[in-house]
Amino acid sequence: MKLKQLSKSTSLKGKRILVRVDWNVPLPANASSGKARKITRTIPFLRELQKRGATVLIMTHLGRPKGREMKYSTKGLARAVKAYTDLPVEYLNVDLSTSGGAKAFKTDVDTLKPKSIVCLENVRFQPGEVQNDAKLAKRYADAADLYINDAFASCHRAHASVVGIGKSVPTYAGPGLVAEVTALHKLLQKPRKPYYAFIGGAKLSTKLPVIEQLLKIADKVFIGGAMAHPFFVAQKYGVGKSLMEPDGVKIAKKLLKNKKIVVPTDVIVGPKIAAGVTVRRAAVNGVKKTERIGDIGTETVMEWVDELNHAETIVWNGPFGVTELPAFSHGSLVIAKALAIRSKGRPYVVVGGGDTLPVVAKTGMDDLYDFVSTGGGAMLEFISKKGKLPGFVPLLKK
Fold first, then answer.
1. What are the strands of the beta sheet with 280-283, ordered from one edge?
2. CA distance 77 to 35
3. Which of 22-26, 220-224, 228-232 has the lowest mean pLDDT?
4. For residue 253, what is the enclosing H or E element?
5. Gap between the Cα atoms of 173 and 201, Å rounded
6. How far apart are CA 52 and CA 216, in angstroms?
7. Could you give the 3-state DSSP secondary structure of residue 3?
8. Largest Cα–Cα distance in the chain?
């Protein structure tokens, strides 16, 4: 896949550039959370654009607001980014719901000093963003000279700020997006064998498309987290009071027919999923009716670590337990550390997903992985759709 990129020799002096990023992180986005990676990865590029004389207009969504819910305003986000990264970013309120608002936006941009960096108001505050409204996209484009998409994590969405703007203004892929595409393509195009995929999370149905695609190209697919519970039930094992997706059992029964599927052999259980509870290890056929599953067990961890030591290509998306609680985080942390140790050698290791990033950060080994993707749903859809995401369409070289 060849994406259009901005040339280093292109003069940007006096140019106004819309840069779509994915700064959709919970506030405060501290470094230890792992979530801040979405922000810190974009900072060098934004500084470069400023240094080259551009006025930078940052676009991002934040949460899933219904209308202009101010708790999702990017005003606080801009303040946090400025304090945490020292990037001189200011906030610019934008309301493009009317022609008057569009005119005011263009006037505000025209009056910005050269090399200014401003974070525009949450793109999802604008009516028509999610529907990819052409009029909204044109109002953004009319205030800019260029558009750069550096938000891989949003490229699975056909929204106005992702795909619409490129119809009216020269459009390019940012370096972060290009890095994601380059790294993830290695998982699809002739990956070295054995190829193992580790998939965790809560709902089996949401990750079924990526599991089905991985079963075509990977040698083994390891399933953990609450999405493994339907597999236990499908084998007529009880899961007590654990989180369980009822519709997942039918899916699990079908998937278990494929010998590539690997599920946990033991789990960590407790009377409830909470801090300070007494936990125990149980075989998957030994969970009591009053217990809840919170993590994969020690036997499973040892088996999976031994397995991954033989792999040449590894992808991991989604934790295997309730990693916010220490008692239920060991499985994910041990696997995360084992994957880090396997990286930077012959094996190629990619990890990603919004809930995976905090686990990676906790290991203190996040710089060892071959690649850490900041795309959660986008990473999964990239794999399941063989790299064809709507956000790439305006960026493709003709």
1. 280-283, 266-270, 292-296
2. 13
3. 22-26
4. helix 248-255
5. 30
6. 45
7. strand
8. 68
Q: How far apart are CA 86 and CA 83, in angstroms?
A: 6
Taking CA 136 as the corner, what is the angle to CA 133 and CA 137, rounded to the nearest 5 degrees?
85
Residue 45 to residue 58: CA distance in whole angstroms = 12
Q: Tell me: pLDDT of 33 over 80.
A: no
Strand-pair category, 266-270 with 371-373: unpaired
**Distance, first Cα to last Cα, the chain:** 11
* CA dist., res. 115 & res. 52, Å (int): 8
Angle CA 134–139–143, to nearest 5: 140
How many angstroms separate the Cα of 151 from the Cα of each of 116, 198, 227? 21, 24, 28
User: Two tokens at 105?
Assistant: 């936006």
Q: Which residue has the tokens 């790439």?
A: 392
Give CA–CA dist 193/183, Å, rounded: 17
3-state secondary structure (DSSP) of residue 218: coil
What is the crossing angle of helices 298-308 and 330-342, to 10°?
10
Q: How far apart (Å, rounded) are the C-alpha atoms in residues 138 and 160?
A: 9
CA distance 264 to 282: 11
* CA–CA gap between residue 357 and residue 359 (Å, rounded): 5
Report the relative pairing of strands 55-59 and 16-20 from DSSP bridges.
Answer: parallel
Residues forming a β-bridge with 197: 221, 315
**What is the per-residue pLDDT across 93-105, written as a single tens digit (0 to 9) for each?**
999 999 999 999 9
Question: Phi, psi at residue 369, to the nearest 5°?
Answer: -65, 150
| Coil/strand/helix, residue 124 | helix
What pLDDT, in 10s, does the model give residues 97-133?
999 999 999 999 999 999 999 999 999 999 999 999 9
Q: What is the pLDDT of residues 71-83, one digit of tens each?
A: 999 999 999 999 9
Which residues 6+ apart lie within 8 Å of 39 measured at CB?
21, 23, 25, 29, 81, 84, 85
Q: Are 319 and 284 in contact (CB under 8 A)?
A: no
Beta bridge partners of 90: 118
What is the torsional sign of CA 130, 136, 139, 141?
positive
CA distance 193 to 187: 11
Q: How many residues does the chain have?
A: 398
